[in-house]
Amino acid sequence: MANLIEVEHLSRYYGKYCAVNNISFTLEKGQVIGLLGPNGAGKTTTLQMLSGNLAPSSGVIKINGFNLLTSPLKAKRSLGYLPDTPSLYKDLNVYEFLYYCAQLQGITSQAINPMIHKTLERCGLETVSERLMANLSKGFQQRVGIAQAILHNPEVIILDEPTSGLDPIQIKEIRTLIKELGEAHGIILSTHILPEIQETCTHVQIINKGQIILNESILDLNQTMHQNCVQVITRLPVDIAVLSAIPDITRIEPIAHNRLKIHYSMTGNPTHQIAETIIAKGWGLEEITPIKKSMEDIFLALTQVES
Amino acid sequence: MSIALVIATREFKSLFLSPLAWTILAVLQGILGYLFLNQVETFTLIQTKLAGMEGAPGLTDIVVTPLFSNAGIILLLVTPLLTMRLICEERRNKTLSLLLSAPISDSNIIIGKYLGTLGFLLLIVALIAFMPLSLLMGGELDNGKLLANILALCLLVAGFSAVGLFMSTIAGHPTVAAIGSIGILLLLWILDWTNSIKDQRSELFEYLSILRHFQTIQSGQINTMDLCYFVLFIATFLLLSIRCLANERFQK
Q1: Are residues A148 and A158 in the same domain?
Q2: Is residue B44, in this structure, part of any structural domain at all?
Q3: CA angle B115-B120-B121, nearest 5°?
Q4: How many Å apart are CA A45 and CA A139, to the nearest integer?
Q5: Which of A5, B107, B162, B222 could staple B237 via S-S, CB 3.0–4.6 A?
Q6: In a domain, A214, yes or no
Q7: What CA–CA distances, in Å, run from A288 to A112, A211, A223, A261?
Q8: Structural domain contains residue B8
């Protein structure tokens, strides 16, 4: 499959300060990449470079096969971009604004109207299409920004914090929309809300101090998050030595009274044997739960090691 | 090019969404209307004297030329107010990224913005031109001279708005852009005042002065040199603006 975005050795300096340091990645059709990172990690700078708003200090960006630096117009034709502050002309109403955006994208006037109506419906903006943007609430303004980015049906959609300022219902709607768009387009979005990544993205990139420190698909990440660890609660005290004899178990950590955390190696899953042993010894098994590492844990672990 | 026209249309229309454009139109019409009536009054007073003179200045010389000269000076102060927001405001409101991430070249953005403002300024020139045209009801005008005056004022505002656009592209704040462009324009306007001092003539300053070229065209002498001056003047500032906008991406 052709890569929608190809980034090679991209760097950006502000004076001596290095905001983005030699990152490379690709985005394919059907992928939703979530860019995750603490404040000042270089997320927005990266997205600004991808959208042609900022020139990289070095590196190559190809969008839909066109080099953004040498043939910017062709590359930008397949680009929809929502900046961190949505670009809205406050003195226009929603319909006029979207009409102008469509014109800027070079869409023929016959095609504009159906396009706008489809987008208004997708973003839930039908009721406010006649209202001035200055009078819209922050959430609606954000939605107009998203509408602007997806209006011309671009292959690549870049969203900088798409759900900021939205209420929980709107967030849910927008996430559904992103997922739906992700099937036919390539999307790259930035956020610092971790569950959002798990819910909407197919891939996650954690970026810190301008470098990508984790680049994995959500499926792989979910596996990493199953930390090979179970928690066991029993009615009677357990003889740790007996449990340690079970193959694959690496470490047993008593947490509280009759409560154990059992770590095991990546290769096997001795949960079954643990349960059998406890029952056979008559210790009274009450609970056995796999412990999942949350995305927060991974994020914190990764970003703190770096710092 | 059609994209430039889209931007120009948007710019032109959005001018009328703010009170600024309406205020400028109203104030200009008010002041120039007063000046116009003043000139007409002067003419009627000295008409009898003029009748007896050989080769005396006509209605066009007494009413139209001063009106357009005054309009030039007033527009020198007004144009920067119109142009100051062009790029600067977009940058401050973060709407510039809409244009920068759309498939539009920098030159189309600048030309679009320029044409939008120029359209409004030409509307002002047209409104000013209606005043002397109203004299046709009761008198006769030197059509050639009237057209020369209109052409001179059109070229003048085209130059003014190019400078204003450039200042708006480099300035961080609209007020700074306005003051900067008024400064440049005023300097270029008064540049050949030193010529009135004996032995202080400078050919370079004389050439650079906008006023001199404006007055030559106004007097009815349409030289290639003066036309070239304005074309070069506009092209220079537009090119500088395009360069500046391209530089936007290399900030810091």
Answers
A1: no
A2: no
A3: 95
A4: 24
A5: B162
A6: no
A7: 58, 39, 19, 10
A8: yes
Domain of B144 in residue numbering reads as 2-39+56-250
The total of structural domains in chain B comes to 1
Q: Chain A: which residues have CB within 8 Å of chain B? A: 14-15, 48, 51-55, 72-74, 76-77, 79, 81, 83, 85, 87-92, 100-101, 103-106, 148
A269: containing domain: 223-306
Average pLDDT over residues A16-24: 90
Same domain, A61 and A205: yes
Pairing type for strands A79-82 and A3-14 reads unpaired
In terms of domains, do A164 and A67 share one? yes
Q: Measured between beta carbons, which residues in chain B are less than 8 angstroms from residue A155?
A: none
Between β-strands A259-264 and A79-82, what pairing exists: parallel, antiparallel or unpaired? Answer: unpaired
**ipTM of the prediction:** 0.87
Compute φ and ψ for B53, nearest 5 degrees: -90, 150
* Residues in chain A, overall count: 307
How close does chain B come to A130, measured CA to CA in Å?
Answer: 15
How confident is the model over B167-218, as pLDDT tens digits? 999 998 999 999 999 999 999 998 877 666 666 677 788 888 888 899 999 9
Nearest-neighbour CA in chain B from A47: distance (Å): 11
At residue B231, the pLDDT reads 96
Q: Which residue has the tokens 């927001």?
A: B85
How much is the pTM? 0.85
**A288 and A202 in a common domain:** no
A63 in a structural domain: yes
In a domain, B49, yes or no: no
Q: How confident is the model at residue B110 (pLDDT cuts 50, 70, 90)?
A: very high
**Interval A56-114: pLDDT, tens:** 999 999 998 899 989 989 999 999 999 988 889 988 999 999 999 999 998 988 999 99
Residue showing tokens 């954000």 = A142
Neighbours of B98 (CB within 10 A): 24
Same structural domain, A160 and A146: no
CA B2 to chain centre: 24
Is the domain of A15 the same as that of A74?
A: yes
Same domain, yes or no, for A65 and A197?
A: yes
Query: What integer pLDDT is reported at residue A260 of this predicted model?
Result: 83
